[in-house]
Design a protein that fits this description.
Chain lengths: 274, 274
């Protein structure tokens, strides 16, 4: 056990608020861990940007988090996990985990008929990382990807169960109708907020995979493997989580308080590009 | 006439591709002018960001354009015009014009019954700049603003006349149903691409104002006023327009070639924050 490091905080970052669904899962499954969260609200969304730009932005954020003394980093954004994680991993003195591989692994291992759908941003789908990772675990799986760019805007508009959102989801999910798919990965951190709309269209027979849940499980294993899982006995126990954003701190705080199990008192604004 | 300056290019910028509708109007109305266009495709959209962030980004872009020797600057983005223009104007050695004031002025002057609607991003509507400017020209006008955040995503998805887009537009325009409005300002550079959908819902009696058209007219007056309108006889005549973006240059080029009257051979990628 690495006594010095186990009580250090975790760094968690996302392009904006979506990654809070991952932070929420970490708080549930690893309640003894402290989180330093960064949401890049000034430059959101990442899902329409290029690999080079997403990697540059991710690198800036990782350096910020390292400066805060984090013991490990969680990339709580599918696009950044797909585009930036592997390149950045090699530069890092601490372990890093994204949301794509844990979600892909569980889908590959739990599918009954080997037909798996993936929905996500344009960037995540075009990266093909879900497909490649599923094939590492289940070489015969058939993987069908579909970019759903309007979903993020609809979630941010708050139209979670609106007839318009249902119509958009029906349009996007049309791609899967004839596929026989038994598993669908919600490959963007906003999408679990549309779970009941997706469930209504797909029926009960399709298993919906939420990578946030699997990522928190994978994180526990990663921390144990490095001997840095917080045992809850350290001096830092009870110290609050910290939240940083690159824009609109008040709006972020309000959204966070609507979905997190704890109350955030403050989100601090920083200029991440400097 | 300022001979040295009249043959210098114009700087035109937007958060992304929307400002190309303004560039197109300038090319039509002032074909002798050269344009240096910057689209901040890495940080698009501006419409959900704070005043402080939009102003900081706009300032970076303006400095880039000044470095290119522009004789005047057109803020071809409603959000940046609403949030950043007045603050930046004071720092500039060249004249600057935005899209809000020309559109507001013509709406104020042409309305029959004095009831004017404005649709735009959250930022543009919350800034109240359209309302204030309309009241400068027509103190008794009733101005009704409505943010339509999904419109940009729908345009970028290419669903310009789709039944889903019609349903979204009906929802947003519901705010104006009982108002008696005779004029609607399309206060975001993406929205003129939805003109026929808006027209279908509103009928023929509502005048749709496209600020891009009014901005190009206002620009001509501004350049004449400063003695820097290009007379078309200079050595630079025929030199091509130049396009710069902060991300995804190829995608930008393809979009630009679908809406501009001339063919773009290249959009150059630059890191605007450095």
């Amino acid at each position: 056990m690495n006594h010095e490091k186990q009580y250090a905080p975790l760094g968690v970052f996302d392009s904006g608020v979506g990654g809070l669904t991952v932070a929420r899962e970490i708080m549930r499954q690893l309640p003894q861990e402290r989180i330093i969260y960064f949401g890049d609200t000034a430059r959101v969304p990442y899902g329409t940007k290029s690999r080079e730009t997403v990697t540059r932005y991710s690198r800036q954020i990782v350096h910020f988090l390292l400066g805060k003394g984090v013991k490990a980093i969680v990339v709580a954004c599918n696009t950044a996990s797909a585009f930036a994680l592997e390149e950045i991993r090699e530069e890092l003195p601490v372990p890093i985990i994204g949301v794509v591989k844990p979600g892909a692994k569980v889908a590959a291992e739990t599918t009954g008929n080997g037909i798996i759908g993936v929905i996500g941003t344009e960037a995540t789908i075009s990266s093909q990382l879900y497909t490649r990772t599923i094939h590492e675990h289940n070489p015969n799986a058939v993987v069908i990807g579909k970019a759903c760019p309007l979903f993020v805007s609809l979630v941010e508009e708050g139209w979670l169960k609106d007839p318009i959102t249902v119509a958009v989801a029906q349009r996007y999910l049309e791609s899967f109708r004839q596929s026989g798919m038994d598993t669908l990965i919600m490959g963007c951190t906003h999408y679990p907020l549309l779970r009941s709309t997706l469930r209504g269209i797909l029926g009960e027979t399709v298993n919906l995979v939420n990578p946030a849940y699997e990522t928190a499980r994978g994180l526990k294993e990663l921390l144990e493997g490095h001997g840095i899982l917080n045992d809850g006995n350290g001096v830092c126990q009870g110290t609050k989580h910290q939240f940083y954003v690159s824009d609109a701190a008040e709006k972020f705080k309000n959204f966070a308080n609507s979905i997190l199990p704890c109350e955030i008192k403050e989100a601090q604004l920083i200029h991440i590009e400097e």
